[in-house]
Amino acid sequence: MKVTYDAMVDVLRILFSDAPIVESDEDKPGVILDYAADGSVVGMEILDASKHVSNPSAVEYTVIGVKSA
């Protein structure tokens, strides 16, 4: 997973995989979902991120629970 914030255009982008994006859809105003050929979500963009995220330049990542092998 990769998270980027472009302060110049105020866009927060989260990529879930490296699969090629074949389709994008603005699910809700300002939220764009990117899809792979198989329909899986590849990533999402939040436009005007500073209006929707308290601190778009900071990321907190926490793993809860551990999946056993």
Written overview of the protein:
The chain has one domain (2-52). The protein has one helix and five strands. It has one helix at 49-52, and strands at residues 2-6, 11-15, 23-28, 31-35, 41-47. Strands 1-2-5-4-3 form a five-stranded antiparallel sheet.
Defining key terms:
69 residues; mainly beta; five-stranded antiparallel beta sheet; 5 strands
Strand content: 35-45%
> What is the helix fraction of residues, given as a range?
under 10%
Per DSSP E runs of 2 or more residues, the count of β-strands stands at 5
Uncertain runs: none
Average pLDDT score: 91
Count of alpha/pi helices: 1
- Return the string of H and E elements: EEEEEH
Number of domains: 1
- State Rg: 14 Å
The best one-word shape is: flat
Gist of the model:
Helices cover 6% and strands 41% of the residues.
